[in-house]
Amino acid sequence: MINFEEMGFTPGILKAIQELGFEQPMPVQEKVIPLMLGDAGDIIALAQTGTGKTAAFGLPLVQATDTELNSTQALILCPTRELCMQITGDLTDYAKFTGKLKILAVYGGASIDNQIRGLKKGVHIIVATPGRLIDLIGRGAARLSAVTTVVLDEADEMLNMGFLDSINEILEEVPEGRRTLLFSATMSKEIASIARKYMTDPVEITIGTKNSSADNVSHAYYLVHAKDKYKVLKRIADFEPDIYGIVFCRTRKETQEIASKLINDGYNADALHGDLSQVQRDAVMQKFRMRNLQLLVATDVAARGLDVDDLTHVINFSLPDDTEVYTHRSGRTGRAGKTGISISLVHLRERHSLQQIERLVKKQFKAIPIPTGTEICGKQLFNWVNKLENVVAEHQEIEKFLPEIKEKLAGLDREELLRRVVTLEFDRFLDDYRHGEDLISPVSEKEASFGRSGKRESREEYPGNYTRLFINLGKTDGFFPEQLIELVNSNTKGRKVPIGKIDLLKTFSFFEVDPGYADDLIAALNNATFDNRRVAVEVAQEKTDRPRNEFPQSRPAKWADRRPEKRSTGRTESKGRDFKRESKFGKKDKKKYNR
Ligand code: AMP
Asked: 481 CB under 6 A from ligand 1?
């Protein structure tokens, strides 16, 4: 194995490499750097992002640039603004100790005047998106006549984005004697045709297998009913409290819808798509990079160029139309030696597309059973217990409250205290899942045997009956589901009473509760008031014995809006579900309905 010192780099570049902490060349660097520092001509490198390809072409490029000249000597084309900025940043790092190298990123969506001014000052290396560069060439601002090296980075992405004509046009502008390097994750017909047209006897390098995905990415799928996709997505997030991933959708609309639903349901998620302004996109990407977001719901186009190395999950909420896009998506996890998983939510009609993708990546995808409520609760509970075990409790502020807290809880022994603390946390999750329908894949249990037992939560665990209660309040009292839930919660001493169907009528209403809570709740509510009215509650004449899973969701849709902020995944960090939101009817409005 060759090391950086033996490659022929100048001391300045070696110093930069050392400062960046690169100890050994990565495989693509081992292969590309000696060729570039030698006299080899054109190079095609099939390598995914995350393999170290920027340094593979960037280090030799920086070394080869003559900073005494004022001309543009190298051109790097890439698909997105983000990638432009990232490459420019990396090259600037490589050039830290090698004189006054001028590198400029030019891309669409930013002021062209500033870029023109930058180019006029003289630039050694231009890093550009194709469309903007065409503009700049047209305005006479970008001059490519002295370019000796052209790098097409993520060439397949550029073609996917429709840049073929622009690339052709640009390559016509660059002197024929140049060296051309083409980096692509996949080798498609279009890539081969660019190579034929603009490259001379290129050396072909493949990192990993051609058209195959990284070895440390496992591929799995949930076979789901189309209507259950969103619920399954939530289960994935709930089952993986530390998830950090991208959820790929097909359209901007779908992306926004899914992100909005997740946000409403309290997950730490946001959307990234082309309908957002550049400023909004930058803000979202920055949040995601900083890990202030756990789930980024994105379109393929918008996610391009987002350089995040250590995703735990790639979730294909919708399979891509173009199977090759799958390779790009899944290549975003399992980077830098880490393992990752790419999960697809597939409905029956999509099985064929899945098989096509399996053939492309040359791997068989594993069917996995949808996590059951019990499994999710267990996972969340132990995640929380682990955090409790490892928390460093050294806030001075807590000290002053401790004596009083100790005194108040003196009657509870350690076991009881523990039970209560755990119950407080666990109940919230159990609440979410105990009444939810079990999501069954349209797939046999045999097929769905991945890692776990495949054992399903039995419906018997949560018996199917609710007790239906009558209450003497209705819509004309300003009494809506929110008020009902608030009323119940404020009279149950912190216990979460599972509520089923709510039927609101004009002057009275019915609602269903878990039978185990009914008596206590009736007693408590009969002592309560609502807007100065005495509340009266009793068991309704008829009892609902409809199986719970007959309801599309056992709780009214409004509950979805009432979760704590950013419950997510790290739900254990949420402050508990304290439905304190203002009702749709402000106090003034409510008065209108008072009798
Ligand atoms: P890239 O494929 O160019 O996006 O690089 C992926 C990541 O690998 C970047 O964070 C680089 O900083 C890092 N990297 C590149 N070369 C090396 C190396 N030789 N040793 C360690 N890390 C590297």
From this structure: no
Q: Is 508 in the pocket of ligand 1 (CB under 6 A)?
A: no
Q: What percent helix, strand, coil does the chain show, rounded to 5?
A: 45, 15, 40
Local confidence band at 562 (pLDDT 50, 70, 90 cut-offs): very low
Q: Is 116 part of a structural domain of the chain?
A: yes
Taking the C-alpha atoms of residue 232 and residue 226, their distance in angstroms, rounded to an integer, is 10
Of residues 162 and 256, more confidence is placed in: 256
| pTM for the predicted model, two decimal places | 0.50
Which of the two residues, 188 and 135, has the higher pLDDT score?
135
For residues 182 and 224, state if they share a domain.
no
Regarding whether 189 and 289 lie in a shared domain, the answer is no
C-alpha 20 – ligand 1 centre gap (Å): 9
pLDDT digits (tens, 9 = 90+) for 122-149: 999 999 999 999 999 999 999 999 999 9
CA of 174 to the centre of ligand 1 (A): 29
Residue 438 lies in a domain: no
Tens-place pLDDT, residues 369-379: 888 877 887 78
E strands, 110-209, are 125-128, 149-152, 179-184, 203-206
Residue numbers of the domain that contains 279: 217-367
Residue 77 near residue 150, CB atoms below 8 Å? yes
* Ligand 1 geometric centre to CA of 17 (Å): 11
**Highest averaged pLDDT of the listed ranges 11-20, 400-409, 525-534:** 11-20
- Type of residue found at 284: V
CA–CA separation, 377 vs 116, rounded Å?
Answer: 57
Structurally, how many domains does the chain consist of? 4
Closest atom of ligand 1 to 50 CA is 2
**Total residues found in the chain within this entry:** 595
Strand ranges across the sheet with 313-316: 269-272, 295-298, 245-248, 313-316, 340-346, 217-223, 366-367
Whether residue 25 has its Cβ less than 6 Å from ligand 1: yes
Is the CB of residue 60 below 6 angstroms from any atom belonging to ligand 1?
A: no
- Which pLDDT does position 74 carry in this prediction? 97
Based on the domain organization, do 182 and 33 belong to the same domain?
Answer: yes
Alpha carbons within 13 angstroms on the beta-carbon side of residue 474 total 12
Q: What is the per-residue pLDDT across 338-367, written as a single tens digit (0 to 9) for each?
A: 778 999 999 877 878 888 888 888 788 888
Give me ligand 1 centre to Cα 49, in Å.
9
Residue to substitute in 30, 46, 49, 54 for testing ligand 1 pocket (most ligand atoms within 8 angstroms of CB): 54
Q: Is the CB of 22 under 6 A from ligand 1?
A: yes
Residues 19, 164, single domain; the answer is: yes
Same domain? 187 vs 250? no
How close is the Cα of 70 to the center of ligand 1, in Å?
29
For residue 437, report the distance from its CA to the centre of ligand 1, in Å. Answer: 45
Q: Is residue 247 domain-shared with residue 171, that is, in the same domain?
A: no
**Which of the listed residues 164, 185, 206 is the one where a domain comes to its end?**
206
